[in-house]
Design goal:
Layout (H helix, E strand, L loop, with lengths): L9 E5 L3 H13 L4 E5 L3 H10 L3 H4 L8 E4 L2 H5 L4 E4 L6 H8 L8 E4 L12 H9 L6 E5 L4 H5 L4 E6 L3 H10 L5 E6 L2 H23 L4 H21 L4 H4 L2 H12 L4 H10 L4 H7 L5 H16 L4 H10 L5 H9 L12
Bound molecules: nicotinamide-adenine-dinucleotide and SN-glycerol-3-phosphate (G3P).
The site of nicotinamide-adenine-dinucleotide has 24 residues, from α1.
Catalytic activity: sn-glycerol 3-phosphate + NAD(+) = dihydroxyacetone phosphate + NADH + H(+); sn-glycerol 3-phosphate + NADP(+) = dihydroxyacetone phosphate + NADPH + H(+)
Family: Belongs to the NAD-dependent glycerol-3-phosphate dehydrogenase family.
Keywords: Cytoplasm, Lipid biosynthesis, Lipid metabolism, NAD, NADP, Nucleotide-binding, Oxidoreductase, Phospholipid biosynthesis, Phospholipid metabolism
Length: about 350
């Protein structure tokens, strides 16, 4: 595929939550001549977008561009779209793809915005997409980075990473989503980009718990740094690259998510740290905090790869009720002494 491939006349985005709507806005702002078609599960969400250019449940009073239209009709949204972007919760993707498959335009490229690992299979979203849609790797891409949706919706300058094994495809997608306030970089490390986005959610739960227990910045910096170490071990074991983990989709996203009150994963962790039960947290959360469901899958994948992930292990123990939030931080500090640079330990 050539980097000079023309921009698509239509882009389909599936999932009208925070990130799907915001990403649709990025593309529509970037290219007023592209028709951006957003699939909403609920007809009333599509109606509000079309009639008032708002998605108030997810993006409050942010005004959406005129060339962004929504529909609850999947066939209408997917019809004739050479670029399809997925932004639904990770655990629902496989079921969603079964309905997408017969409606996908021939030759369409599919992009994952999701940051979750599938429970049961431990599959990354690009793997689920390839399996369910039967696509070659050069027709599947991922986008990840320090991308808190609300900041981007407010047009605050943000960078991200588009990854595809075919660099020219990544460059084509980057051209589609380059807006004055959104700067995508490209690379071919799909595994590293996805793992960075998945594991940072689990680490953010841990940092949130520490915040909820009123621990200070030393604790948070320690968990973030050691969190990056264990994320990197897993990514490298799976074939990802070190540079990716030091970049926007690794360190960048980890810092943003662990620092921001806008992060749903950080918020869920803070609520746990403040003493709410997991059921109470789930009831309180109105948006997707992927780390809650992905944590167990990350740990299972790490076990298969022979990678130690002590922070993830402790977070999963809290989520599964085997460890109290009071015991989390001490658990992380009472492991055997070792050299900081030991990548496989
Ligand atoms: N919000 C962000 O800042 C952000 C940024 C980067 C990546 N992401 C990732 O994007 C993905 C989507 O997150 P979001 O923030 O848009 O979530 P969200 O909770 O805001 O919205 C999820 C959307 O999916 C729909 N949905 C829920 N269950 C579904 C199902 N079973 N089948 C089909 N659709 C369903 C909802 O109606 C909603 O439109 C997640 O993997 C998240 O990690 C989010
Ligand atoms: O709100 P979170 O925790 O899902 O994080 C959103 C984005 O992934 C941050 O990059």
């Amino acid at each position: 595929m050539s980097a000079r491939r023309p921009l698509p006349a239509k882009v389909a985005v599936l999932g009208a939550g925070s990130w799907g709507t915001t990403f649709a806005k990025v593309v529509a702002d970037a290219h007023p001549d592209i028709q951006v078609s957003l699939w909403a599960r609920r007809a009333e969400v599509a109606k509000e977008i079309n009639e008032f250019h708002l998605n108030s449940q997810y993006l409050k009073d942010i005004r959406l561009p005129e060339n962004l239209a929504a529909s609850a009709d999947l066939a209408q949204v997917l019809g004739g779209a050479p670029l399809v972007v997925l932004a639904v919760p990770a655990q629902s993707v496989r079921a969603q793809l079964k309905t997408v498959k017969p409606l996908l335009a021939p030759g369409a490229v599919v992009v994952s915005l999701m940051k979750g690992l599938e429970r049961g299979t431990d599959a990354r979203m690009s793997q689920v997409i390839r399996e369910e849609l039967g696509l070659p790797q050069d027709r599947v891409a991922v986008i990840s980075g320090p991308n808190l949706a609300m900041e981007i919706a407010r047009r605050e300058p943000t960078a991200s990473v588009v990854a595809c094994t075919d660099l020219e495809v990544a460059q084509w997608i980057a051209a589609v989503c380059t807006a004055p306030y959104f700067r995508p970089y490209t690379n071919t490390d799909v595994v590293g980009v996805e793992i960075g986005g998945i594991v940072k959610n689990v680490i953010a739960l841990s940092v949130g718990i520490c915040d909820g227990k009123h621990m200070g910045d030393n604790t948070k910096a320690s968990v973030i740094t050691r969190g990056l170490a264990e994320t990197t071990r897993l990514a490298l074991a799976l074939g990802g690259e070190l540079e990716t983990m030091a970049g926007l989709a690794g360190l960048g996203d980890l810092v943003a998510t662990c620092s921001s009150p806008l992060s749903r994963n950080h918020t869920a962790g803070r609520l746990l740290g403040e003493g709410l039960s997991l059921d109470e947290v789930n009831q309180r959360m109105t948006q997707t905090a992927e780390g809650i469901k992905s944590g167990r899958a990350v740990l299972d994948l790490a076990a298969q790869m022979g990678v130690e992930m002590p922070i993830t292990e402790a977070v999963v123990a809290v989520l599964e009720g085997h460890l109290s939030v009071e015991e989390l931080a001490p658990r992380l500090l009472t492991r055997e002494l070792k050299s900081e640079g030991e990548q496989q330990q």
